[in-house]
Amino acid sequence: MPFSDPKFPVINPSPDVDECIKSMRYRDYFMVASITGASWCYGYVFGKPVRRPTASTAAALGLTFASFLIIQDTRNRLMGYQENSRELKKYGPYPIQPPQFNKPATEQETRYPTATGLTSESTKPKLNWKNYS
């Protein structure tokens, strides 16, 4: 999970697996089918003595990889880390959105630059110096 604030509207800040599967796109189904099929072909081509069992094992591994990849992509879309316009139309935004920090480059601190400028208080809280007296 990224450590910066989401760049797109948040739909669900903590989606579970069922919500990720329900919000799959056609591209995701195509990726699952193509990765699994390519894995089966790889196992068939390189599994010379026993081709079909090797191909089936490779297809199972490819399906597992594809499912992890798709869950990661859909989770990032629901949490606002990837483009999510379709899901936003379908489910609507989450009621509480993180603040957007879009300062121009001239207004940002140049002595101590940050990687993205989007780190929030919840990710990196300010130090409490009251305990250090």
Low-confidence parts = none
State Rg: 21 Å
**What is the beta-strand fraction?**
under 5%
Helical proportion, percent range:
40-55%
* First-residue to last-residue Cα separation: 36 Å
Number of strands: 0
Structural shape: elongated
Order of helices and strands: HHHH
Main beta sheet strand tally, sense and closure: none
Class inferred from helices and paired strands: mainly alpha
The mean pLDDT is 85
Count of DSSP H/I helices:
4
Describe this structure in words.
With 133 residues, the chain is an all-alpha fold. The longest helix is centred in the middle third of the chain and has 29 residues, at 51-79. The protein has helices at residues 17-22, 26-46, 51-79, 85-91. It starts with 16 loop residues before the first helix and ends in a 42-residue tail after the last helix. Helix content is 47%, strand content 0%.
List the helices and strands and how they pair.
Layout: H1 17-22, H2 26-46, H3 51-79, H4 85-91
Helix pairs in contact: 2-3
List the main descriptive attributes of the protein structure presented here.
single chain, about 45% helix, elongated, mainly alpha, 4 helices, about 130 residues
